[in-house]
Queue: 4 jobs
Job 1
Amino acid sequence: REVKKKKIYFNHDGGVDDLVSLFLLLRMDNVELTGVSVIPADCYLEPAMYASRKIIDRFGNGELDVAESNSRGKNPFPKDWRMHAFYVDALPILNESGKIVTPVAKKKAHLHLIDMVRQNEEKTTLLFTGPLTDLARALDEAPEIEEKIERLVWMGGTFREAGNVHEPEHDGTAEWNVFWDPEAAARVWDSSIEIDLVALESTNQVPLTLDVRERWAAERKYLGVDFLGQCYAMVPPLIHFSTNSTYYLWDVLTTAFVGNRDLVKVQTIKSIVHTDGPSQGRTVETADGRPVNVVYDVDRDAFFNYMTELAKK
Ligand code: AGV
Ligand code: CA
């Protein structure tokens, strides 16, 4: 029996978990990817574009193109993190064929997004795992697409005191995807789009740990599981305590939520986005703020089973 497929447009920023998310989306039989675009936030654009196109070549069915973003942020990501896209792009699994077939889209990401939303009769779900700049620009350019957006599912923000930005002139209360372009997040908050949020605290139950790595190593005879293991070999796991470089499955949880909402529990929080000063990029709960649906609890084992089973298919 045919399952009804959700139409998903995916905009990501080339991190290890962004690229793993692309792979998993291609494996979901209840999802139809209508478009993919890459924003050079937590990555460099060229290797992230190559890696995305190679992942689609290897694991997709050859109908997609990938759009480049020309968006620029306010606060650049640390270089060490942006380098990760080079490592994924260089994986032998993605370079076996020696060529890239999936084309680069003619239009830039925000215009590509507008086209894909307009083109589809059905409403599109937007999945964003980097900053919201391309969506903010799309809404400015074509505000009428709002009605054709089913919802936005975003990895971004935190409602706790401690964020993950540790930079000069900042107070540490922001999450990076908001901090890169706080005004873009504020622009999207101003829209009437339904927002599902995987915030920083939503991912506390899904750090990268050694037992997870061992599981992927043990099952590496499956090409897709080997790919997960290779990707997560590039980033530091949680061992004794969490540091600023410890890796969580931030974007993969967000992507899994699109495929299977039963993995998590959500609660609605009203909030605003700080756009200036030492708290720029902070999302704060406020009585008269705009509602967002925030993931507050994850079935950790079900989540890891879900992503690993998808990888085996
Ligand atoms: O803040 C989480 C976001 C997610 O979209 N990114 C990484 C995920 O793709 C930024 C980030 C925070 N801490 C990081 C990050 C780290 N230790 N390494 C790389 N990126
Ligand atoms: Ca990301």
Job 2
Amino acid sequence: MATTVVNEYRLNEDNELRLEVSNEDVVIELLNGTAELFGTQLILHKRYTLPAGFRGAIFTYQGAVIEVIGKTDSAYIAQQTPMIIYLNTHVALEALRENAEMQLKQDPNSTVRGPRIMVAGPTDVGKSTLCRILCSYAIRQSRTPIFVDLDIGQSSISIPGTIGALYIEKPADIVDGFDKNSACVFSFGHLSPAVNLLLYKTLITELAKVVKKKCKQQIAANVGGVVINTCGWVKGEGYDCIVHAAEAFEVDVVIVLDHERLFVELQHDLPSFVKILHQPKSGGVESRSREFRALSRRNVIHRYFYGPRNNPYFPHTFEISFDKPIDEQELIVAKFGAEQLPESCLPYGMEPEEHRTKVVRISISNELKNCVLALMPPSVNKVDQTLLEKPVHGFIVITNVDMEQKILSILSPQPYPLPSKIALFSEVTFIDDENV
Ligand code: ADP
């Protein structure tokens, strides 16, 4: 009979226990002291299950004893971490929040606002982790910041291929992160901004408008400020996207993790009032392989439909016929980006680039099989350019297309009928092997 491996780790102050969970869950428990995982405090003697493949670090400011039950791929105590630098960053942001709060109390019409901070750097330097830590520290001081994720490949707000914003009102769960139910999400439909740069920038501008509106409407959101995670593509056009995002969100602070050239270039290209800081990455962050990324993308979509393990959802599968006249169709699929016309054929006044953001209807075909589609809000009833300004209502997967019988099979969080009939095409796919 296999015996369970139990290890106890004694951490001194400012140490962290770095864990890589293998293909079986691991249970952790704080036996003594205080500790946190990416900014969320662990409750003494509460047992947390870390899922297979989990990577992370349990940090302590004062010292802690942590028990790990189960087999890990790696577990070691690190004495060198950048956590004090990240904590100091939080302290500086908090001072800006206090100042904004004080001025708004004196004059509610003041244009002052909480800090808007953007984290940039290549992939796998801990950008999302730093954003989570900064948001968690803000929450621990009763602030309610807005977290924005522009990383379409590995979004921590919604499914891959999207950008989004989340108004954070409660601490992140140790394993599941922040509650994403009220996220505002725009569908880009591809896994890299390079596929359609103009569209990516357009959606960033739209998301920034939503975030600024929220800050205008709600003092607590304005004071809490905005924490923005970016894509790890930092060269050429990827760099242009970072500059565009900084401008669209009117950021005051940019933290560059682990990339000297990006730091120097941003100092040169962003206005002088933007504070640009160069900070180290944590030695615990390791590069993730292409396969690991693909698997974590799949897991995120699976979780969207089937829920976390401790609180499973039961999605619905149903069929709809598309053998109907146009105005009776139950599902109309649109996409952003039309075929490019030769310049000589462009209508008068149309810019050559504009086809990249043109909203067009597409016909139902086998190409839709396994695609994750973004449903537009129920109020949307026609396919036009305004779809670019609309956050998505939710997602469905086209699990099968029967072109002969003209039937679509659908995986949906909600039962039949679909809550809205217009959906956006996305190249992102999900093979639903639970329903075969
Ligand atoms: P990026 O956003 O730059 O791509 P992430 O923040 O997603 O990087 O971090 C990459 C991986 O490293 C994630 O799996 C994260 O959980 C893990 N990680 C982050 N910080 C640490 C750390 N201090 N120790 C161990 N793993 C970490």
Job 3
Amino acid sequence: MVSLTIDGIKVTVPENTTVLEAARQANIHIPTLCYLKGVNQIGACRMCLVEVKGGRALQAACVYPVSEGMEVYTNNARIRNARKVNLELILSNHDRACLTCVRNQNCELQSLAEELGIREIGFDGVQIERPIDTSSPSIVRDPNKCILCRRCVATCQNIQKIGVIGATNRGFNTIIEPVFDMKIGDVPCVNCGQCIMACPVGALREKDSTQKVWDALADPTKHVVVQPAPAVRVALGEEFGMPMGTVVTGKLAAALRKMGFDAIFDTNYGADLTIMEEASELIERVTKGGKLPMITSCSPGWVKFCEHFYPEFLDNLSTCKSPHEMLGAIIKSYYAQKQGIDPKNIVTVSVMPCVAKKFEAGRDELSVNGLQDVDLVITTRELARMIKEAGINFPELPDEDFDPIFGDSTGAAAIFGATGGVMEAALRTAYEFITGGTLEKVDFEDVRGIAGVKEATVKIGDMDVKVAVASGTGNARKILDAVKAGEKDYHFIEVMGCPGGCVTGGGQPIVSAKVRMEKDPRVERAKAIYSVDKDLPLRKSHENPSIKKLYDEYLEKPGSHRSHELLHTHYVP
Ligand code: HC1
Ligand code: SF4
């Protein structure tokens, strides 16, 4: 351990701790901008400058290690002035159209300008107007807002292990962009949106689909059906000032009804349906010598990653469409028929914690008879903006239910939103399908938690089923490389494109670097997910009576001809 003083307060921390972390432990706030815990620690923005007694230059606290007896000062005139000058320089060539910026009031640069008391900018920076890159179906890149902090670069390169964006040119001409002047839509970006989550400003954002949803709602010829994903209900409240991990399912249903949707269904129903099909597919593959390991295919960022970087595993992907796509296909067939509505007049809208879902919804593989299963995808953040625009007082809304029958779901569906959840849900059902008995202990703790890679062996009847779970494409690489090298041998693998799974997908409320130093949204939101599961009376997908009804009336059985037509697909390189 090392002892030092920071602003006269004695602190004892482990060796190799940075001054920034040590200060945090002493409850001393040092401003940061390019720093993002566990992701980017490069000391580039010089916002966290501190004075170390005996040293001449100010030091960047985020990279400066503590040493025995060190005396650090975090707040004096010299430090405040240096930070202000640095911030003014950044602001001098930043597009400061805050009023119309998507990050207005949720921008770390804006907060910092307020915190440091910037009232004038003493420099005339060169403002080169650069084109906005709208080439991706999921992501918009606005270089005019970029402050070169490199948090997105570190996320894409080091966490997701993709590395399609980086710094080009030098000095004032530096830009963060794909190589060779390419657009983001032309490189193997997987649309995970983790770069958006890392961006402190409005330089990276989702492609906005809110106006298209308003237009559909205003069109009297359209029957507009909405379905929110499992992870939306444990994060949406944050956009309205509620604590991280608040469950807002009832308010969510009520808000969607107030907005004027014609039917309010739930992707969780689609998740139960997916488990029926996916557990059956797994059993079929295991017992009949099909391609193993089977790998989940509900995360579109992961599917695109697989297509670009591991095409040899495409046949391992489950043929199941993702839950919201399955529900979309059922709405445009079974539901349309029952209601006597021409499916061409149905608009299916998904509310997702994910920006890759925007890309997924447009895929040819996810359509039936020329109609896309899902027409429009908005993120949790876009929904929050629409709720605000509609003048709905979200925190005060009384709880309401989703519409039957596609609004009914089990705890197994709820946990889809956390890494390991799809695996756990599938195991609950596969166990009972295989053994015909009752699974008493439904909690599979080994596949829970935020470890990037998790493994378990589950005894089902007389079989040892070997499973693995990865979240984040960087961790997917680890598992796939081990399988390829013959070092690991699994029956079933769950991969989610985003670290932590959908709860921290690229469309969720953005958590600032400051909050991330204290709270891990992967943990807090997952806790909420598991509480939803625990509180539900039914916790296995095959027990959902509305799912049984769908099979009785329409699909017949998992893997039937009709199921294959509507609910399955195949990805080819
Ligand atoms: Fe997900 Fe899924 S869990 S992919 O993580 O399989 O986005 O929440 O909606 O479709 O159900 C996301 C979440 C989501 C699908 C489900
Ligand atoms: Fe990289 Fe994902 Fe951002 Fe694409 S969306 S640039 S893959 S972090």
Job 4
Amino acid sequence: SLLAGHAQEADEANYDESKIPPYTLPALLKTANGREVTTVQQWEQTRRPELLSIFTEQVYGKMPADKVDVSYKKLDDNHSAVNGSATRKQIEITFSHNGVERKALLLMYLPNHVKTKAPVFLHFNFQGNQTISSDPDIIPSQHSDRPRGNQASRWPVEKIIDAGYGLATVHYFDFFPDSKDRYAESILALFGYQSEGDIPADGGQAIAAWAWGYSRVMDYLETDWQVDASKIILMGHSRLGKTSLWAGATDPRFAIVVSNESGCGGAALSRRQVGETVNRINHVFPHWFCKNFRQYNKKEDELPIDQHELLALIAPRPLYVASAEEDRWSDPKGEFLSTAYAGEVYKLYGMKGLETTTMPAVNTPIMNRVAYHNRTGVHDVTDFDWENYIEFADKWLK
Ligand code: GTR
């Protein structure tokens, strides 16, 4: 299946710390012309834009800037969902441009006990809206015939509602069906792209399309009277963790960014080459990153950036990166180190990063302005993960 990361573990993947080739990370706080960055102003005016454009052109790709027509249609607004504790809303979002139309179906649960606008976790789903809960009134997503409630273990809806948060989700296929043969069905078709061949070398592909989707859902959330759009916690798991980091970097409206086991091309340092590598990911998923990223296949040393610099683009907003001990394919240590190094930028703002380069014991979160945990278990989203994200959101938003 698409989600069976382990099945793709190449025989040659390295997990041995002693076999990591020696590497030097690009300096986060030095500009392209060699000037040290010592102030927030230098970071915001020079270094941050420099890094953002390298990630755009070399890693994730640009999205066309065209303004797309958008309309919202409320298909459902029910105040007695989740045993009366939540309001369920389903909104059909229609995008049209150049005579092409694409639709995304947004599912939301909002806490009835929160009388003001609610903070909301925005988290796309892998298998269709109907799979996040056994609620029989969820409208199935267009690209999925998976059974209701199939993924419910990853979506503790009651826990989220009880904690005073809303939940917003869309099946990620609505923006790009996750396959190298399905460009024509994706939102990239709005811009005239029908296949890989149409995309420029620095053009965005699936990850950029999903990140664009996260921003378009944010546009909607800004219009919803029950939502506090200044308190949106953007969360993604795995390939969608890569996406949440990229969306958080490109769209400053997201208040908090959470990366759950995002691995290669997400939170993990590429130069360590532990588990999944740049070469491997670009071969198995040629439709994810921009084509320019392929230049670095087996040449991680030539990357002008590394992933600690992506994490730093979230600053000064709260950032949570999480790993799982048995998810070695995502390189927990590489995720931890990049998170620790990103702290340099938080420090410029007078805020606390992880404040250590020693990995914490399993199931022991570090929770400053930057947070990290490595829980026991496999590649997944669990209650432990959610409980900590809720605690982190409480810490910074309440
Ligand atoms: C794997 C892939 C990872 C990660 C994962 C997932 O196949 O190698 O980069 O994205 O899928 O999304 O579950």
